[in-house]
Amino acid sequence: MRYNALQILKQGLTGHKGWKPAWRKAEPKFDYDIIIVGGGGHGLATAYYLAEKFEQKRIAVLEKGWIGGGNVGRNTTIIRSNYMLHENEGFYEFSLRLWEKQEKDLNYNTMVSQRGVLNLAHTDPQRDAYARRGNAMILNGADAKLLDVEGVRKLCPFLNFDNARFPIRGGLWQKRGGTVRHDAVAWGYARAADMRGVDIIENCEVTGFAIQSGICTGVQTTRGQIKAKKIGVAVAGSSSKVLTMAGMRLPMESHVLQAFVSEGLKPTLQGVITYGAGHFYVSQSDKGGLVFGGDIDGYNSYAQRGNLPVVEDVCEGGVSLMPMIGKARLLRMWGGNVDMSMDGSPIIDKTHIDGLYFNGGWCYGGFKATPASGYCFAELIATDSPNDTAKNFRMDRFSRGLMIDEKGQGCQPNLH
């Protein structure tokens, strides 16, 4: 069933009794051409692009829980391409362009809202750094505009400009950035992949890999053994645990990243705002709640819950930036399990085991990368050649000394 205005009208007049399930509850077959381990945004996007763009057949997605239960539904929904390094900026700009046509491609309302992303500057050196980043963005085909104080005031007149501990000196504005409904992305890709013949198998946890003579021939799961010619792993914060079963040790750690939502407030924020004097980012949902986040919990964890010290730290950053929200109630919070690479940039690469491919290490950038990650991972699996925008995201870049150190937001190698 394709979604359109006529279908909505028809279903509304008939009591909404004719809607069909968004995707089939598939049972695992004995073997497939391609298996994707992980039914989050990246895994589902990979399966969709494998079927749609690269015309692959007999594909399965294995998800240990339910679709939308992992990080894809546990983030702050921000999309942007305001990076500085060429290796990252080209990739994230590719992703943003895929976001811009996603709803038409998937025939699904993922609520792409390009409200803009504003990075605030509080010192002259920080403003100069934003000018450099904005120029790098423009050179890579993205949009960027450096704002002075009055330009920021026009966008956000409610901010504390002059009497704050960190006065605002300007900002970097990307108009095409914004937000997307996170769980709708999972549902949209799942439905579109299913329409193209992909088997989406929920409650099917991978418990091991079948590896013979350096070749991966399948996986063991809680629902039996499944064979495949090629296997792609895209499991976010569980990457280290899953690849350990294949005898691999990854250059990354897993940490909790918390997100928060306030009670509903009157429309205030035009787009996304990031605090230049602390790690805090915020947007406002259509329901009026402020959606915000900050630093990871510092300890290693595979949990989907965080601790109170980070809650306090993030809320302090928010009140410092916007004192007016001091009396707003925190409605709920949750944690996502993120895989932090050593340089803060991702890995999309073949492993040393034939037939086994890996996608991970997304740190803070996983959600905004979803379409490009899926496209590039699908191209790698289908053709054994990397997409031009992802050719530097190799597994061996650490041993080769070719790190992509964007803001150093990964974990700290000097502590190990």
Describe the structure.
This protein has 416 residues and is of the alpha/beta class. It is 28% helix and 26% strand. The protein is built from 11 helices and 18 strands. It has helices at residues 5-13, 41-52, 86-100, 102-106, 124-139, 149-155, 182-195, 239-244, 308-321, 370-383, 397-400, and strands spanning 31-37, 59-62, 78-79, 117-121, 145-147, 170-174, 178-179, 199-201, 206-212, 215-221, 224-233, 252-264, 272-274, 281-284, 289-300, 330-341, 347-350, 356-360. The strands form 3 sheets. Strands 1, 2, 8, 9, 10, 11, 17 and 18 form an 8-stranded mixed beta sheet that branches. It has an 8-stranded mixed beta sheet with strand order 5-6-4-13-14-15-12-16. It has a two-stranded antiparallel sheet with strand order 3-7. Helix 2 (41-52) packs parallel to helix 7 (182-195) and helix 2 crosses helix 10 (370-383). The termini are far apart. The model is unreliable at 410-416 (pLDDT under 50).
Question: Topology, please?
Answer:
Elements: H1 5-13, E1 31-37, H2 41-52, E2 59-62, E3 78-79, H3 86-100, H4 102-106, E4 117-121, H5 124-139, E5 145-147, H6 149-155, E6 170-174, E7 178-179, H7 182-195, E8 199-201, E9 206-212, E10 215-221, E11 224-233, H8 239-244, E12 252-264, E13 272-274, E14 281-284, E15 289-300, H9 308-321, E16 330-341, E17 347-350, E18 356-360, H10 370-383, H11 397-400
Parallel strand pairs: 1-2, 1-11, 2-8, 4-13, 11-18
Antiparallel strand pairs: 3-7, 4-6, 5-6, 9-10, 10-11, 12-15, 12-16, 13-14, 14-15, 17-18
Helix pairs in contact: 2-7, 2-10, 3-10
